[in-house]
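U., I forgot to send this yesterday:
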Amino acid sequence: MEEKISCDGGHEFKLLLSCPSGLSPSQVSVVFDEAYDRIPHSDSSLEHSISEIWDARVQQSSSLYNGTKFRYGGYNFDVGNDPKQQPHVSLQLGLTDYRTFVGTNLSPIWERYLVPSEDDCIQCQHTSSPLGNGAVVETSDKKILVLQRSNKVGEFPGYFVFPGGHPEPQEVGIISHEGFQELNQCRTINNKVSQEMFDSIVREVVEEIGAPADSLSSPIFIGISRRVMNVRPTAFFFIKCNLQSDEIQQLYSSAQDGFESTQLYAVSMLSLAGVPCGGKRTIYSMRFWSNTQC
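Result:
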């Protein structure tokens, strides 16, 4: 399923899983377990650098705060033997936090955390790798919404991105792995986390572009990418909006999280596919629907 996409500016990403036809919530499940948590590196100096980098970043920006995130630990894909059976993806998630993300994935020495391996999850076993999310939002006049990131954000300021953020453990009452050991508790929390995968991307779209939730279709899951630079994983979804792009432009001016971006663009699919990959005109993971299929 893995495919590497190259961009002229040296910014590459891997399509770990691509489902252009999309998977509904009933076709996506989650296994939440500490087995998918980050493995500390054997190099104690690397481990110590996590705190040093975080402390330095906090001194530079008092608005930074730590918080738990779901850690991407892989997936299982099942097409089944029955042609009538729908494909199913099970996401494997552990726990991490923003502090460890800043100190590993966003560290200037992030490559030292990688393990030489063809297996994606083994290669990234020492990184925080919080699972982000992103949405390809199509308006009623067939435009795709793209944001230009603010210069105040921590990751890739000024770049063009799809709306998105992170699913949040706190939204489903998770602050640690404690209390979910029993089988029925595991099933309940897995179902809640799976639902959070879809609920969270709707929240992010509403908060970042200002469109009301009732204008958005139910998200469908279209895949997972991992950026080669700093091995950052993201789950992507496709959402239709029943508003026209000019209506959304008006709503964007009062979006709750409008401070994270400086401009919203509504572009055609053809224009999107032709965006130059390099400098600050890179859009990551924009080709799910035309690559490796489920």
